[in-house]
Amino acid sequence: AIGLLVVMFAVGMHLPIYASKTAWIYIIMAYLFLASVMPMWLLMQPRDYMTTFMLLGMIIGAVLGVVVAHPDMELNAFNGFQVGNSSLFPTLFVTIACGAVSGFHSLVSSGTSSKTISNEKDMPMVGYGAMIVESLLGVVALVVVGAVAVNGTKPDGTPFSIFSSGVAGFLE
């Protein structure tokens, strides 16, 4: 399955699918409909299994890229959390690594995780491992954004485009 995933990435890089925004909306809506009516073992477990390898591959690549590229960071020192009328709490616990700081996934993923493991005794390790990987992803995201910032100003674009272009720069 991992070999097929690598082949599909290579095919996608050489033969990308271009479609209009409307076409993508219909494709995603069809997928969402199918995902809502198909049994979990048929769609969710194989998809999540493969997604795990993509996520781990990206994190490993990003960490190696950061270590090898050893980027310079031009950021101002932290002088407090000042974003309009927002407070640091609960923002920190909701946003950093999808709630890795707060343990959010240990609460909400139990319905999915319980169906994908063979023994309930494995749950603490699965939950802890997921939070550690999410925390690592959060640290990598901070390093990537810090490395692509110019004179303390983050680049323009969406968070996804900033992160992906930063990681891609490390892997070149």
From TrEMBL:
InterPro entries linked: CstA, CstA_N
Keyword annotations of the record: Cell membrane, Membrane, Transmembrane, Transmembrane helix
GO cellular component terms given for this protein: plasma membrane
Gene Ontology biological process terms, A to Z: cellular response to starvation
Location(s) in or outside the cell: Cell membrane
Topology versus the membrane: Multi-pass membrane protein
Domain spans labelled CstA N-terminal: 3-148
Transmembrane stretches, start-end: 23-42, 49-68, 88-108, 128-150
Cited PANTHER family: INNER MEMBRANE PEPTIDE TRANSPORTER (PTHR30252), PEPTIDE TRANSPORTER CSTA (PTHR30252:SF0)
Protein's UniProt name: Carbon starvation protein CstA
Originating organism: human gut metagenome
